[in-house]
Amino acid sequence: MIYLINPSHVSFGIGVITPRWLYVLASATPRELGEPQLVDETLETFDASVITPGDIVGIGIHTGNALRGYEIGRAARAAGAHVVFGGIHATLYPDEALDLGGGHAVVTGDGEQVWPIVLSDCASNTLRTRYDGGRLENTSFLPGRWELMPEGRYMWASVQTVRGCPKHCSFCSVWRTDGQKPRQRTVESVVEEIVDLRRRGFRFIALADDNFYPVTLEDLRMASRRQDPRELDRLRGIRAERFELMAALAQLPADTVFFTQITMEAAEDPEFLDAMRKAHIKGALVGVEAVTPEGLKDVYKGFNETGDALVARLRQFRAHGVHVLGSFIFGLPSDRAETFAATLSVAERADLTFAQFVMLTPFPGTLDFATWEKGLGAEPPSIDGVPVSRHWLIPQAQRPKVYIEHPAMSPDEIRRRTQGVWDRFYSLPTTWARSRGAVSSIKSRLAFLLISKIYRQMYANTGIATDSARVNRSVRWARLMAIPCRRLFAGRQMPNLPMPSLGNGAASEGVLVGVGGSAAAGSASLH
Ligand code: B12
Ligand code: SF4
After folding, report:
1. What's the 301 CA to ligand 2 centre distance in angstroms?
2. Nearest ligand atom owner, CA of 260
3. Distances (CA, A) of 468 to 11, 338, 386
4. Ligand 2, atom 4, residue with closest C-alpha
5. In angstroms, what is the span from residue 446 Cα to ligand 2's centroid?
6. Are 306 and 251 in contact (CB under 8 A)?
7. What CA–CA distances, in Å, run from 362 to 90, 155, 186, 304, 435?
């Protein structure tokens, strides 16, 4: 048996976004080896006693779930399985997965092409300890095998349209692991996958991209100023493909909802925002990060605006019909006590639909991590014998919430103030008031309240609270709320949905709007 396991130390019974790697690696698994068992621990905890000798267990880890992944890996190895690790954390720390996770092998980089080789080496007992999947060309990306998805367990499916990001933010590892050259999947393959999902009844789809807007108007202006025709052509080509994709997505049924991640620069590109709205990209996570120039300098994100200009820029998204989940970071060196209120004020004035307030965490592979690790010196402080520079190996309950020493605030002050901002942004009266601008009918406003609450419970309380009773309460609450949420996100199957016509960005709009009945009869629409 082949198991693919997505580890998690908390299980909510329902998942917000489908972990895409499970379904992509399932596609890369040769059919003659049988159906892989896909296990997502954000739904339910995995029981390792089902593993039998000779099984193959593939575990995908990012930094936050690496420790749980290692626990599963050791149990699987003890049960006689071949244990293989992959994912961003295994790419950054391949030896760790072998030493601490019971791994027989580690795959670094993209998994699509190398996974079948690993499986064949397992069968012939020639498994090596290291495989490098590299950075694949855009034409080698695989769609997910969505027929293996359990019914009614996820709110959003996920489809990737581009890997890599040209920026270089100091807290982010994407540009270093996925590269700064955007690798866009072909329009046809993305659209085929999305149509497959819609036919199966999924109408909420997260575009699991690092940055959906890889070429900005400023990039084009700069290439033009430099009189660099080749670069200008390359950038224009990338941009044209984005428009081509959006023109195809615009032909999908009207109740389709996409969500993506994008930089704030898109706000100065009304043509792009309008194309997004027409393409049913109704929401985007925008990395605002900081509201002061000093804060932006701290994270190498000088291309963002601050103050009132920032509020005006963010408002552009809603003005063009794109809802924003604003993402802010607390704990930057230039932050002071008053930064929390200033951030909340921006978040409230900027027509944001949702917001998240994360505490600066030095993720490996980032510039922040390198500086922080160096600053800790040869003997970094440790917790239970684990150096804090390997914070992901500290058991969850003892893991500090703030790592980077702050010049003006204690870790607890940063944590408490961050929690306070979440509490105020998501207080019942504020959320209800916000719902008026975001959606129209009372039913949709109630749905908005529910979703805001569940989002807050899953992401803030389980990640920021130090009080374990609060964390447990949040998990129980989220599990309970998951039941009505499932209904809200369910769509109707549309087995006969045709493929949109592909062509250039001028493809006719609305051809398929409403095919098979629009606006999801029987399911509440968010927007
Ligand atoms: C979409 C996304 C999200 C979504 C959805 C997450 C989900 N449930 O899928 C949301 C918005 C919810 C999210 C949240 C967070 N995310 Co996120 N997310 C992404 C993003 C942009 C794409 C992930 C994706 O689906 N990729 C597509 C799949 C196919 O690629 P893949 O996962 O890399 O898998 C490939 C290979 O790695 C390999 N592989 C993976 N697993 C395995 C296993 C085996 C056995 C093998 C052989 C190969 C293999 O093969 C796959 C195919 O090539 C990535 C960036 C990125 N480029 O990966 C960040 C990223 C993974 N996220 C990141 C972070 C930090 C977070 C948050 C902690 C943010 C926060 N502060 O709240 C939370 C954590 C939530 C959680 N508990 O999981 C970081 C992780 C850094 C790290 N070192 O771990 C990344 C890399 C982005 C970054 N800024 O650096 N995220
Ligand atoms: S944070 Fe976003 S914009 Fe910055 S490098 Fe990462 S993916 Fe790109």
Report:
1. 9
2. 1
3. 15, 28, 21
4. 169
5. 33
6. no
7. 17, 29, 34, 21, 34
For residues 110 and 87, give the distance between their C-alpha atoms in angstroms, rounded to a whole number: 8
Check: CB of residue 334 under 8 Å from CB of residue 292: yes
The CA-based angle 196-201-206, given to 5 degrees, is: 70
Q: C-alpha angle with apex 509: 505 to 514, nearest 5 degrees?
A: 140
What is the C-alpha separation between 94 and 86, in angstroms, rounded? Answer: 8
Whether pTM > 0.70 for this model: the answer is yes
Query: Which pairs from 339-344 meet CB under 8 Å and 24+ separation?
Result: 339/291, 339/292, 339/295, 340/417, 340/418, 340/420, 340/421, 342/291, 342/292, 343/290, 343/291, 343/421, 344/421, 344/424, 344/425
- Please state the atom number of ligand 2 nearest to the C-alpha of residue 173: 6
Q: Distance, CA 165 to ligand 2 centroid (Å)?
A: 6
Q: Residues 6 or more apart from 334 whose CB is under 8 A from it?
A: 290, 292, 294, 295, 297, 298
Given a contact cutoff of 8 angstroms between Cβ atoms, the answer to whether 64 and 19 are in contact is: no
Rounded to 10°, the helix 270-278/229-249 angle is: 30
Burial category of 374 from C-beta neighbours within 10 Å (exposed 0-12, middle 13-18, buried 19 and up)? exposed
Instruction: Give CA–CA dist 291/298, Å, rounded.
Output: 11
- Those residues of the chain that have pLDDT short of 50 are 506-527
- The answer, yes or no, to whether any atom of ligand 1 lies below 6 A from the CB of 79, is no
Distance CA 314, CA 284 (A): 11
Alpha carbon 196 to chain centroid, angstroms = 21
Q: How far is the CA of 467 from the centre of ligand 1 (A)?
A: 27
pLDDT tens digits for range 162-216: 999 999 888 899 988 999 999 999 999 999 999 999 999 999 999 999 899 999 9
Ligand nearest to the CA of 88: 1
Residue 226: Cβ within 10 Å count: 10
